[in-house]
Amino acid sequence: MKKVYCDDCLSRTQVYTWFTRFKNGREDLNDNPSAGRPETSDRAELVEKVREIIGIVANLTTRMLAEELNTHKNTIWRILTEDLEKRKVCARLVPQELNDDQKMARIFNEKRDFSHRPSSVLACSIAM
């Protein structure tokens, strides 16, 4: 068959597989019905679980979150970056945009940390 139809036909193994399926009672070529996605793939529910966990412990790794929620670490990464709009800063995911209170807290902390340094260093270190 390969000589006549080239790559447009089934391999020998596939022919035997389908022969066995039809011999055992299969009547059509359509896929068997499946149960669908796994229960943990409900994205909205998973997003809320991730939000809740990082609200309590913000410095967990994606691998740790994935193990906790029984899902893949890439799924967790997409949720953190796309749904929760977080980005990695010094191995910690933080909001991409700071609100006014967060900006003021950052300024306060920077002033406290750099109180012994000249003001030019302070001006360069605060990023808003």
UniProtKB/TrEMBL annotation:
Domain of life: Eukaryota
Protein name per its UniProtKB record: (Mediterranean fruit fly) hypothetical protein
Species the sequence originates in: Ceratitis capitata
